[in-house]
Amino acid sequence: MPHRTELDLPFIREQYPKNHWDWAFFENAGGAFVPHSVIHRITSYMTETQVQPGYPYPESADAAERMNLGHRLMTEFVGADIDEITISASTSFNVYVLAQALRHLWKKDDEIIVATLNHEANSGPWRRLQEFGLKIIEWPIESDTAELNLDTLDKLLNEKTQLVAFPHVSNVAGNVNDVPAITKLAHSVDALVCVDGVAYAPHRALSVKEWDVDFYLFNFYKVFGPHMGCLYGKREILQKAKGQYHYFFEEDDLLHKMNPAGPNHESIASLAGIADYFDAIYAHHFDKNEPSFFARSQDLYAKFAENEQVLSKKFLDFITSLDDIRLIGSHESDKDIRVPTFSFVSKKISSEEIARAVAEDKVAISSGHFYAKRLVESLGIEDTKDGLVRCSMAHYNTIDEVDRLIRSLDRVLR
Ligand SMILES: Cc1ncc(COP(=O)(O)O)c(C=O)c1O
Questions:
Q1: Which of 5, 245, 246, 335 could form a disulfide with 305 if both were Cys (CB 3.0 to 4.6 A apart)?
Q2: What is the pTM of this model?
Q3: How many angstroms is it from 217 CA to the middle of ligand 1?
Q4: How far is CA 89 from CA 56, 210, 376, in A?
Q5: What is the pLDDT of residue 5?
Q6: Which helix (H) or strand (E) holds 94?
């Protein structure tokens, strides 16, 4: 098959239940659609192997095999080793558990730097450690472009800093923050980093070893899979963390110690369906036979990014041409600068009203603070419940859908 230069969107959209495409869907930052391959894996697990895994009878062995496959493929997706990955209930849950697991390493008056740009998931659990005498230092944002300023971080870091918690991409602003540079800076004072990759992972490929991060989190329901969260932790730091599961799991059992929820069997098995989906698109677009799922994901995401940049440009040209609109995040469509998650406020119409009016044209967008309430407050948006309007795209969105969004917003905003 010839190498295709553009994503074959009709092919990609065939991988999903048809009914999704009736609406122009721009709430992907809330949760992405799930392809047939994932639905098939979860259904077949529950139909064919719904027993406890790991015992010596065929159904049980099959169940374990399916779960192990899901876990292994997602480990490859992240670019980590298998025992560095915990697959559990959600990102909020994983950060909470992580904070509890690390706190014995720190003493009273030690400091944790928390970016105001965070979703509450990577903020609240660290702030709770104030109960144990730790100090929280805010890393503020300084303008509507919502960039993380490294000079500001540099001034906040000192020998008491134990950890810096920040997002790879904010679920409101959409900018891609410089994870390797921030990590290097934090490491210069021996602080750890905990990076929230939830709003990044649906758009750009992961490579945790290359970035040298200590902890990296994302969830699968924004990456075309089930409602589960993934925690990557560097092995040597996970070894020092205090186990949070049952007492009989040893401290060197990294696969279990960070998941007091226990595994959700059918969901873990269904993660192999994300790989099935990516591999179907890969085989459709590339001639080469790349054996590693990590490498295939890198190639594929580069293609996703190209489509997203086209969608971003179209939307940004429109939204920045309007008076009375305050856009948060970068105005640049460059795929290395931002992902296609756009939030704005109108000086005239409430955010909730805009989202509701656009829905009349079968265009799905959202409004609110998106659990980044501290960020919305720091932007000076007083009614945090009404918050901002968010339009968020994924690789499967088409330029025609962006046109529909623009026509609808144009009707409502002008
Ligand atoms: C950037 C970001 N971080 C964290 C979360 C929380 O994820 P979870 O639902 O897995 O706890 C979200 C959810 O919207 C998010 O957008």
A1: 335
A2: 0.97
A3: 9
A4: 28, 26, 26
A5: 60
A6: helix 91-102
383 C-beta neighbours (distance < 10 Å), count: 12
Class of domain 42-273: alpha beta
CATH ID of 9-34+294-413, from 3.50.30.40, 3.30.420.40, 3.90.1150.10, 3.40.50.300: 3.90.1150.10
Contact 245, 259 (CB under 8 A): yes
Hey, what are 251's tokens?
A: 């401290």
- What is the spatial distance between Cα 3 and Cα 306, in angstroms, rounded to a whole number? 15
The domain spans of the chain are 9-34+294-413, 42-273
Ranges of the chain whose pLDDT falls below 70: 1-5
What ligand 1 atom has the least distance to the C-alpha of 31? 14
pLDDT of residue 192: 98
Name the pairing type of β-strands 325-328 and 341-346.
antiparallel
Residue with tokens 């909020």: 92
CA of 121 to the centre of ligand 1 (A): 6
Distance 284 CA to ligand 1 centre (A): 31
